[in-house]
Amino acid sequence: MRIYIGEPVRNRSERDCLVAACEVLESAGGWSYVFANFHAAGRQIDLVVLTESTTLVVEAKGYSLPVHGDINGQWVQHGPYGNKKVGNAYNQALDGKNAFRDAMQKIAQISGYPNAAVVISPDIPHESRLTSGDFKVAVGGAELIKQTLSQPSGARLSQSQCETLASHLGLELVSSKAAAVNDEVIEAERLCSAYRAAFEDFYGPTAAELLPDNYECNTHEVSSSYVHSMIERGESGVLIRGPSGCGKTLLSASCAISCIEGGCVPLFIAARDFHGQFQKLLDKEASLLNGRPATSVLRAAKTLGKQIVLFLDGYNECTEHCRVGLTRSLRAFALRYDAGIVVSSQCQLERPDLLQLNTVVVSPPLDELKTILAGKECGGNLTGDIRSLLDAANSGLEAALVGKIGTLMPSGASKFVLFSTYARERLKPAATEGIRVLSVFAESLLQRSSFSLSVREFDRLCDSQNLSQAGRQQLSESQLLLERGDRVSFVHELLFSAFSAEAAIRSSKGDPVRIRAVLSSPRFFSSKVFILGALEDEMLLHEVLDGCSDEDLIAAAASGECGTAAQSIVNHRIDKMLASMIIEAKGIRFRAFTKSSG
Question: Which pTM was predicted?
């Protein structure tokens, strides 16, 4: 059953007829459409019901005093202080029936006429003398609704034609009969509908980028649809964990869109924007979508009884001193609104005991998925060089970039060269000054232990670097930065890591001691693979790697993430060490002793 209205139903008799019709339709089964309080062909119509077998037009009346009337002539209401003409409801119903048929004719070829009824609710007043109507219009009390809905009629429409007619008449779909008769409910419907449409417009394209993949949950392999159902069921919260660039945000966005389709109301916020004021963060995000604060959206969702699901993206991007406060805020929100919680992060939550979250592990993409991602960007033309670059790609984002710009890169290029080439391609003629500004931007964020600056601070930073107006325009259009509200950040944390590496290399000025110090600094933990990959002087690369004991960095270099030069140096040293170990093992001698029996 789908209910459409022109305006909310405020008249008591019209409400009674609408509720009575809905109750009959709910018990009858099958499809049905209800149009309430609308205009058609110049007539105001109280109620129309359309089913597979009948079309019924209802004129609703609520008389409190006895009424006298026939098919023809005026109807008169009799009271203790005299009589009052009240209009001929039979003729009103007949006019409404014909007007609605005219509206139907504009969207479909029909034969016959709808049924029509004057329904007096809750019943015909005592001592009334009214016509019972005829084959054109029936007249009676509230029981007439059930009776006339069981009678077949002409002028019937299909479901698709009913939708077309509702659109043609400019009617508004509501979720329930309560929404049709309650101003607060209909306002909540309108707010939620506008918010969810804006949410889909903004996050839908991101969700659409997710390709089919499998994840791990409680030692089991699960699909994205299983993760969707976990969240929609709301049995517990979900923590989506995995390394950078492997699709955590895409999976979260996909789950959020799935929630909308399941009737839930999602909120999506970024942890990097949390600075201790959770409500402010919620209001900012909701306002960016549809100009209303989060409190309005949440109130509307509760009015409609819709499940609220909060998605927090990039928990690891929240500054460390704020993480406990963020976890506590998530718990308080979940308790206050009975909300589901979905968190994406590279790391475990601070105070995970405060939230009961099932963990879904997103792993680096397998070769098959990397090939699909790269092929999607380059039209399936995967050359040998592109395939060799894919071998070193350790995330879905890297695989996609290889597909986009792999033909512009040398074989065996490092992860740093991949992101640098992509940035230069996006910046085009403004590459030199754009990369300088982005490096300073990354350095500023590192110094502040932050993931974003205000638009005002970013403008000052650009001015301090003498960025030209053309360069500023190119940087704005490059899609390397994300401007959301009044905050500016890198569009992805891997870009932040790449430009942090660029900043570190520039400030080190080729000094191997300073580079080794940067590599061991916790501040550059996520950038160390990029820093090593940015070194293109082999002599300097040898000096930096000399004595390096960072297992993760050595493994990344050996796998090719830092480029072929670093891979060659590390693999050579590994081979040398293995050879030394074999020689040492061959020199080992053993002496056997027998235990005396005495």
Answer: 0.72
